[in-house]
Amino acid sequence: MRALLIYPEFPKTFWSYEKILELVNRKVLLPPLGMVTVAALLPQHWEFKLADRNVREVTEAEWAWAELVIISGMIVQKGDMAAQIANAKQRGLPVAVGGPFASSTPDAPELDLADFKVLDEGEITLPMFIEAIESGASSGRFSSNGEKPDVTGTPIPRFDLLELDAYDSMSVQFSRGCPFQCEFCDIIVLYGRKPRTKEPAQLIAELQFLYDLGWRRSIFLVDDNFIGNKRNAKLLLPALKQWQIEHDYPFSFATEASVDLAADDEMMQMMAESRFDSVFLGIETPDEASLETARKLQNTRSSLEESVDRITSYGIRVMAGFIIGFDGEKTGAGQRIVEFVTRTGIPAAMMGMLQALPNTGLWHRLEKEGRLIQDKAAAKGVNQTNLLNFVPTRPIRDIANEYVDAFCALYEPNAYMDRVHSYYLKVGTPRWHQFLRPSTGAPKLPAMSDVRALSIVVWRQGIKRNTRTRFWRYMLDIARRNPSQLEQFLVVLAHNEHFLEYRSVVTMEIQEQLKTLPPELPPATSVEKELQPA
Ligand code: SF4
After folding, report:
1. Fewest beta carbons within 10 Å, which of 174, 206, 212, 232?
2. CB of 26 within 8 A of CB of 20?
3. 225 lines ligand 1 (CB under 6 A)
4. What is the pLDDT of residues 61-110, one digit of tens each?
5. What's the CATH architecture for 168-410?
């Protein structure tokens, strides 16, 4: 069987980082880990080609070669997913779809033309699909019916199918699922609340495979919550550290974790020693009442500011997500987020308006309250320029305007530089061999692509723009007071090349959507009153 795997195109988002990718001559931030995992789970006597539409078009030769087309994607990719299914069907090819979008909304109209729907986690449903297709079936829907697979048997993803030069960072996965129960989260719907992890040796074998393929850049552990199963994470980290030492620390790691990471010094120490240089935290909001409404209680147990500082002190840069539009939220939520981010200095603060994702606790509650303004098929997913898809408890225009103001304030060039400077004064010294190779004691040299990127940033921010005085003052200050973090300081300053432009995208797209809203859309309080029995 000749299987053509197609990964649909993403719309441009906060995380697409095009301007930064241009600087380092890469096309996309991360590869489609799900697709290469699917390829590893399918029979290895099949032949595979992978076309990531974020990197390039599918070629005519690939269409002509294929006997079967497999497409997988997330809710935000559904537009291109539908287009690629239609392309394949026009060519008379059978199409199988899977991934988070198909699993959460298998009856979405975008998937109507697909022949096979391979839902949920592939470890369980791909064998059903293989059996069906090999016995001559021309259609089918395969679901795990709530069963979650053990991932200790998952094979090494077929990283060899990727065009490695196109990606800035590589993806691997250690665990799936998260023990918490945030109301808006679809991770726990898709992957469950009992985190399942791979064996340490399994992950190390994946890293070794990437190393043997020549990969030498950063790696994102795409786990929903890397510390969801703390015991197993602590079994992995010593093995990871040892592997890194033996290979002269070829990879830096980033991941996502819950805020309670800050309460576990042993974990932070182990992560820092394995060369984790950043971690994404879902902080969501500094408003405690909103955290309680969202059932994100783990974020209310200790000071969020102190948590950020503790993680930072281990030399691990904090990135964070923030949400506006929670029920009961008071005016000024956007400004309070700006103040929190400014106080903590978090450089990359991702903001979005609350979205009810299909099948989440939030979705079910709002459905019951009659407040959804989209059906499942119309849900667009989390994108930084999507308005709320439900009737909020305060005017939607106020939320949208606060959001735009907060986003623009966070990435105003001088404010961004001030924040990054204050943050990098606090970032702890790296706990790995940053400058020397452990194997030989020889110095490490920076990659030419990094040197080129840094020169462009120095030219733009330090010479061309009116940030130049700040740039040199701050750079010299970091060089003097926290020299081991100078390179990272410049890298993070470079990130604003993307945010600068993204500010106008956010403003324009939100204003466009506001224009289409009916003027009288009432806040939820009055809707609720109407719904209440007399
Ligand atoms: S901590 Fe993160 S992954 Fe876990 S339930 Fe909450 S939002 Fe989802």
Report:
1. 212
2. no
3. yes
4. 999 999 999 999 998 899 999 999 999 999 999 999 999 999 989 999 99
5. Alpha-Beta Barrel (3.20)
What atom of ligand 1 comes closest to residue 224's alpha carbon?
3
Structure tokens at 368: 């019951």
Q: Residue 32 is encoded by which pair of tokens?
A: 């489609």
Query: Does the CB atom of residue 350 touch ligand 1 within 6 A?
Result: no
pLDDT score for 418: 96
Residue 520: pLDDT over 60: no
Q: For domain 2-142, give the fold.
A: Rossmann fold (3.40.50)
- Cβ 178 under 6 angstroms from ligand 1: yes
For residue 291, give both structure tokens.
């955290």
Name the residue at shortest CA distance from atom 8 of ligand 1: 185
Task: For residue 317, list its beta bridge partners.
Answer: 278
- CATH 3.20.20.70 in the chain, residue ranges: 168-410
- Burial of 504: CB neighbours in 10 Å, binned 0-12, 13-18, 19+: exposed
E strands, 236-375, where? 253-257, 276-284, 317-324, 349-353
Give residue-wise pLDDT tens across range 421-432: 999 999 999 888
CA-atom Rg of the chain in angstroms: 23
Q: Which of 296, 355, 357, 360 for mutating ligand 1's site (highest number of atoms within 8 Å of CB)?
A: 296
Question: Could you report the per-residue pLDDT of 324-374, keeping only the tens digit for each?
Answer: 999 999 999 999 999 999 999 999 999 999 999 988 999 999 999 999 987
